[in-house]
Amino acid sequence: MSQPDLVIDYSDDCASCHERMPKRTKSQLAGTPALKIALVGSPNVGKSSVFHALTGRRVIISNYPGTTVDIFRGTAVLDGHSVEVIDTPGMYSLHSITEEERVGRAILLREKPDVVLHVLDAKNLERMLPMTFQLIEAGLPIIVVLNMIDEAEAHGLSIDIRKLSAAIGVPVLETAASLGRGMPELKQAILDFKSQGFIQPIVYDEAIENAIDSLVPSVKDSPPSERISPRSVALLLLRQDEQVRRLVAGEGNDVSTVDRVVEETMLALPQPPAYLLALNLQKEASKLASEVMTHRQTPGIRFNERLSRAMMQPLSGGIILAAVLLAMYYVVGVFGAGFLVGWLEKTLFGQIINPFFQNTLSTLIPVKPISDLFVGQYGIITLGLTYAIAIILPIVTTFFLIFSMIEDSGYLPRLAMLIDRLFKFIGLNGRAVIPMVLGFGCDTMATIVTRTQETKRERIITTLLLALAIPCSAQLGVIFGILSVSTGMLITWLGIIVLIFILVGWLASRIIPGERACFYMEVPPLRLPRLSNVLQKTYARLEWYLMEVIPIFILASVVLWAGDLIGLLDLLIRGLRPVVEFAGIPAAASVAFVIGFFRRDFGAAGLYALATQGILTGNSLLISAVVMTLFVPCIAQFSVMIKERGLKTALAIAGFIFPFAFLVGFVLNHTLKILGINL
Amino acid sequence: MNETDNDKIKCPFCGFEFDAVSSTGYCGSCPLAKNCKLLRCPNCAYEMPAEPKLFSAIKRLRRKP
Ligand SMILES: [Zn+2]
Question: Which terms in the GO cellular component ontology are assigned (chain A) (predicted)?
Answer without folding.
Answer: plasma membrane
